[in-house]
Design a protein that fits this description.
This protein is an alpha/beta fold. Helix content is 28%, strand content 30%. InterPro entries: DHFR-like_dom_sf (IPR024072), RibDG_C (IPR002734), Riboflavin_Biosynth_HTPR (IPR050765).
Amino acid sequence: MLPVIYSMSVSLDGFIAGPTGEIGWSAPFPEQMRFHLEQTRHIAAYVCGSGLYQEMLVWENAEETMAGEVEVEFARIWRALPKVVFSRTLETVTGNARLATADLATEIGRLRDQFDTGVIAVGGAGLAATAIEENLVDEYRQFVCPIILGEGTPYFPPLAAPVDLRLIESRTLNSRTVYLRYERTR
């Protein structure tokens, strides 16, 4: 069964976006972008909310707007990646994406049946919160950035019960960002 991962950049105090939704502080440095590229190669499918889907549309035509070799390669992989978008407002999506037709657990089950290798990534604070609340997330991957925001969109939702985790990987990227990878203990 393919694991479900939740991977985002996060401030030192646990936010993925600032009070007004700003995320510029989390822009990856070249070393971190190469790391993202390697991780993206292992994603079988991506499940996200409409906000993150729309943010990532920039990668649909990156060859025209970005000159970096790593960025262009990331865009190539991202475009080919199957995406399931949960939205109450979008009526259509483009590229290799489709709108969700069922609840999150059912859609993840369908993806697990469809793919034999890789991971299923979930993105977007609201959708990830649902996945966490429904115990669907197997791994948490954080890129901890050296900034304290004070408030904003939290990486974790409020939980009714603790979730026990085990650290399985850590590394320092670009002497600024710390990558932490935890798996849920069962």
